[in-house]
Structure formats: structure tokens, C-alpha cells
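Intended use. Records like the one below are meant for learning the mapping from a protein sequence to its folded structure. Do not use them to infer anything beyond what is encoded.
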Amino acid sequence: MTPAKPVNQKAWLLVLPVLVCVAFSAVLPLMTVVNYSVQDIISPERRVFVGTEWFSQVLRDEDLHAALLRQLGFSLAVLAVEIPLGILLALSMPAQGWRASLVLVLVALSLLIPWNVVGTIWQIYGRADIGLLGAALRKLGLDYSYTGSARDAWLTVLVMDVWHWTPLVALLCFAGLRSIPDAYYQAARIDGASRFAVFRYIQLPKLRGVLMIAVLLRFMDSFMIYTEPFVLTGGGPGNATTFLSQYLTQKAVGQFDLGPAAAFSLIYFLIILLFCFVLYNWMQRVGTGTKEEAP
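Structure written out for the chain above:
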């Protein structure tokens, strides 16, 4: 019997630099936050262990509850608009040739703009005196003001996010559509399937994995949105666009409550993990059901 060949484990050394970077950029800051969340930092030299007191205080905070509801409403609205719009945009894009390359470049342009610049662009764009959107809506007789109306501010932030990130969903869906073998479309043409039937039973099931990635990416990113609404509205008017990330920043930087801010950041992290877990499992079940129903 030939003895088993020893496995060379030296390849793990190539992963060592990544582990070191992750340790310094993620693990150590996380442990620092955990340490702050169970202590009352009176001064740099004096700290008192308080256990779960900060967590209890944060969970009873009514402002946090309101910010969480605003955040959930915004993230669900983002998914409800960007996912169907991205699919529709991907379906309407040319499949090949120079037109496809041109459209891909044009669609991806908004993704190249930094987040703070996006907020500045829409800050100017929505002004009634010099902004194209604000001036046009005023001429149409609409009383639009993202600085004075909570509804207008919320809708402006939503439209801004849709403009900025729908191309990401479209590009992911476009890549998924291009990976579908032509044999499926040939069989559909032979059977005389309609365009909707092709989308329902061929394209949509084949896009399940891509859509799962798009939903998770967009949910996580929208749930952590900070820069764009901060630049555009500063969280106002009132607290209309004060989402969880800005609420956390106000607590940590503005009020310098490091203990409650650390506790809240951990809760924030767990909320994102929980919702992503629920979304992932729900999409898995929906995708399995779609696959079973397909003829």
C-alpha cells in the first residue's frame, strides 16, 4: 500500500498578510468597541466596569427606535425601487457589440462618483434658485424644499440613492443574463413562449444568485448610509433623514458618549447581521420554490 503523500501546508503562509491586515483593521477595533461598551470611561486613567448598563440604556432610547424605523423604511424602499429598476434596465441593455460597451460605460458612470460628491451634486441640483430639479418643480407649481419639508428631504435622499446605486444592480443582472446559455432561449422560441414567460421561467430563476448578491449588498449599504444624507440635509429637517449611522456619529463624536455609542454600534452590527440572515434565507426559499414550479 502506497503511503499517503504529505500535504504541503506552506500555502497558508500566503494568507498570513491578509490575516494580519484583518486583525488590525477589524478584529482589534471590534475588541476595543466591546471593551468600551462595558465600561464607563470617566477619564483616560479612570474606568468603571458597568456590565450591560449601556446596552439597556441604548435599547430604551426612543430616539434610537425612531431612527431604526426610519432606517428600515428607507432600506426597504431602496430595495423595492432599485431591484426591479435594475432588472428592467439590464433587460433593456444591448447584449453585445459596441452599443453594449457604450451603454455599460454610461450606466456605470454614477458608481465612480464619491459619496460626498454625490451629496454635493444633489444639494445643488435640488436648490430652487440654481438647481435644475428644484427650479423645474417650482415652475410646475410644486412647493418643493428638501431643507424645509421632511417628506421632500426623505424623497430626495431616496431618489439620490436610486440614481447612485441602481446601476450596480443593473450591471450585476446584466452579467447574470449574459451567463444564461442560448439553448434555453432556443427551446423557448421553439415552444412559442412569450417574453414574459421567458423572463418568468428562464431569466428570473437563473438570476436568483445574482439577485441575492444585489439584495444583500444594497440592503447592507443602504442600512449604513451616512455620507450622502449628511452632506445633503445634515439629518434634517428635524430628524427626518437622521438614520442609524448618523445617530451613532452624533452619540460618539457630538456627545462623546463612548460607552453608549460602543454598545449601540454592536447592536447596530447585530441588527445588520440579523436582517441579512433573514433576507438570505427568504430568498433561498423563494428561489427553491421558483425552481420547483418551473416546467
